[in-house]
Amino acid sequence: MTQQKTRREQIYEVAGTLFSERGYHATSMRDLASHLGMQGGSLYAHISGKEELLVELVNQAAAQFDESLMPLREENLSPEEKLREAMGRHIDVVAHNLETATVFFHEWKHLSPEAYKKVTDWRDTIDGLYRDIVREGIEKGVFKPDLDVKMTAYLVLSAVNWTYTWYRPGGKLGARQIADQFADMLMSGLRK
Amino acid sequence: MTQQKTRREQIYEVAGTLFSERGYHATSMRDLASHLGMQGGSLYAHISGKEELLVELVNQAAAQFDESLMPLREENLSPEEKLREAMGRHIDVVAHNLETATVFFHEWKHLSPEAYKKVTDWRDTIDGLYRDIVREGIEKGVFKPDLDVKMTAYLVLSAVNWTYTWYRPGGKLGARQIADQFADMLMSGLRK
DNA sequence: CCTACCGATCGGTAGG
DNA sequence: CCTACCGATCGGTAGG
């Protein structure tokens, strides 16, 4: 019962690989086609153009983050548990979608204005999610009262986002373990 | 006594702006030339080719980091002070060289193999610097004994490197203040 | 999905 | 530093 991939999906997949390795502009449609065993012009029987590929990959990544993180807003967890869980899911999405995540973080500047705006809006939403968790933690007295909400959210986001630059599958630690270690250090600090 | 900039330096400067905004491959030599008020072919009277620009910008950024961070190894500071100081200098370099730092973090994959290797070696050196500080802190009993040195260094590096994505000059906080806030949170944790 | 082709643009050079 | 040009390659299309 192996899922049958449409040719279109195969194209997206190879585009994800190449765009993440070389970047969007350094990948030609002929490169892409040859990796799929076809001629450059044949791609256009399946897709409308190069930008469609970038838009699709970026949307795929954003959708993975959204599906994983957004439901957290409604869940009944303590702020500390919620922050830990958000970090776990966030790194999990990066780890299991390394190529699209890399394209997402690296190539979104090359999108057309409309798609570009969607990404900046999305980023604001994720910022908001983390800031809300921090704010709630302060209000409930579990986080330090003098934390700067924005800076705290940046610190957490740095940790989870930067993983795409160094995480490689097959390492000793899985995504959740990395997130737990980061969360432990962030919660209680490095100092003895 | 305003420093007189050579034409060559002006070219690097504009290349830094354009490469950081649009990316290396999305910037044409004619784009670059027109921003300098000259014709595309005229650039080659001053530089040898497009890649030289990328190599130079990446080297400039690496040199700034090195000059600022490397002397720290010899300084007689407690591990905590040393970590805080490293973060301060690191973010300071990013903040005062935003364009070259962005090119450095974003475009180094497009370097030729030799220049590429220099960057990965450099990155290992910086990793080593932060890991040594963490290790020293554990050995001297000022950091928690059960810290994972590698993960701890990744966490710190995430915070200082990721700044290039969100820091913009003119904000309320200067580089040192950002670093201090990050260091405070990392040292003593978010939990009350 | 291929062949053959389009106009545009690329990095770079020659000669002045 | 400009004019004029080079071969190569780009994204994309027509017709089959």
UniProtKB/TrEMBL annotation, chains A, B:
GO molecular function, one term: DNA-binding transcription factor activity
Top-rank taxon, per record: Bacteria
Protein's recorded name: TetR family transcriptional regulator
PROSITE patterns: HTH_TETR_2
Keywords annotated in UniProt: DNA-binding, Repressor, Transcription, Transcription regulation
DNA-binding region range list: 28-47
Span of domain HTH tetR-type: 5-65
Organism of derivation: Deinococcus yavapaiensis KR-236
